[in-house]
Amino acid sequence: MPLRITSPTFDREQELPVRYTCEGAGVSPPLAWSGLPSGTKSLALIVDDPDAPDPRAPRTTWVHWVVYDMPPTVSSLAEGVVELPAGSREGRNDWGRTGYGAACPPVGRHRYFHKLFALDVVLPDLDQPDKAKLERAMSGHVLAQAALVGTYAKRGGR
Fold this sequence. Notes:
Phosphatidylethanolamine-binding Protein; six-stranded mixed sheet; three-stranded antiparallel sheet; 9 strands
């Protein structure tokens, strides 16, 4: 069975519920996964938006969440997770802080990629890495990856 990431609150390519955005509670969505390959020693999660600031003329990929060293015995994260599973570490998002940064597109409908990576190592403490630093550390250690994409446009019609 291939690696798969899902959410009980939104389907692939469907709209994120308002609760997980800046127009709602701004909490992280519940996520679950299955199909870890044999030899998985840790998991990493990156949530990003490649449509920033405007999906008609994207200029950057905005990073919403960076998590790594999640144990392979963990198969989900609860909604609004405050305390990550033991051993897990967080990196910095593009707001310059750790934790989940809610979807808050300035204009248009954006795509939010929830990317899960199964790694063949437990990474060392990377001192709150940004996405690029984590990706460099994961290079050559990714056994499998999966993505769940949700979309969102602000209700104001912008």
